[in-house]
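This section describes the prediction task in plain terms. A model, or a person checking by hand, is given the sequence of a single protein chain and must write out its three-dimensional structure as a string of tokens. No templates, partner chains or ligands are provided. The sample shown here is typical of the held-out split.
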Amino acid sequence: RFQVFSGDTGRAASLMPVGGGFAPTALLAGFSMHRFGVGVDPMEDTERKLNAIKPIRPGARVLDVCTGLAYTASGACSAGAHVTTIELDRAMTHLCRMNPHSSALFSGNIRQLYGNGADVVPTLPDNSFDRIVHDPPTFALAGELFSEAFYGHLLRILKPKGILYHYIGDPASKSAGNVAKGAAKRLKKAGFGGVVIDYEAHGILAARGRVKASGARGKARDLKKEKGGRSPEERK
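The expected answer:
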């Protein structure tokens, strides 16, 4: 395990092997940043998030809010998208340099922005992105990233036919389920016309018009067996 201390957050961050030869996850404040366990590894977790916003066509503009280990940004980039990613914690970038599975972040094909997403997103132009992946830290530590005002900016920078994916945690769990309900209400108040919970991807999908979840609610019971997949209260 490789560990660093973050001067940005005041917390330790580390790369944690998950076994089986799979890509590692990041461990922050004792909680993993990806699901892993029965049938799921960090890359599969990432794939489910990206599947939720398919299709990602070559040349599409994708925003990744909260870079982490850059698996999401890397996956979108490999699909041919023009990716912009936002990260508050430079310690995460250091972990990315130590992790060969994060190497695409330094390929020159991904635009990196630093700062709190709540400060950076409002500076981005209207109708800029075809897809947005919002993978925020804990609600308790970053409530501004769950606010109606912030959601309004995500809607503003999303193209008319764009899709937003918002990580929540296992919607079948009590804690993440409550967060999902509150987030869904605020997304609608912010102006998103279509808002659905995606149980397969452990998040919410939102768009100006109708949007369809990638996974059925019935799959949620199976996902409870997975490790990681922390609710926002448990993250960072």
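For orientation: The domain at 2-234 is CATH 3.40.50.150 (Rossmann fold).
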